[in-house]
Amino acid sequence: MEKANLTKDDIRSLIIYGLSENNVNVDSIDPKRIDIVIEDYFFYCDEFKTKYVQGELDTFKKASCLLVAISKSNLVFDKKLNAYIAIDASQKMCEKPYWNVGLNFDIPHKLEEVDFKKLFESDRYCYDKHRAMLTDAILYADRNIAPISVYLNLELFYRVAVELKKEQMKASIDNINNLSAYAIEQESNVEYANNAETSTPKRKRKLFSLFRK
Asked: Can you give the pTM of this predicted structure?
């Protein structure tokens, strides 16, 4: 799914991912309901583009359309579980995002990839807080939720993930540098000790030879 324009099969895969992440047996879902979500997704994308966007939709706006399409559907009849599925599917889309550049904002430009779950392993509070906020927004708005009201939430979450990725990378590099410096220091200490051991007997032999004369 490393592309700017997603097909129906791509959207289906994201929906199935959301179901699987929430331990919902895909075989228990009527395929027609998934097809309806896909149709709604493309409808919301067209509506968003017509009303609010110059050029093409970026990934975050498309992800918000998917989130709304799932959250308004009856994939599962538990509203909170349905919201979780919508959030997981839309966030998965945002892991390989594109912006649009150029005079007409229609040239896709690939952004940095992230892995939300892996990145936020050390900061579950931020991850869970974002999930809770989106869940509350979905449940509170119910069927009145619109893509334009949530796309910035997804984009900001991605931005936080990118900054966290940079911090973790810097910490890893610093750790490697510290280990390298420690290894060099230990090697120097061993070399110094070896030189000291080999030089001491030589001095003794010279002294002993003087006494023999």
From this structure: 0.80
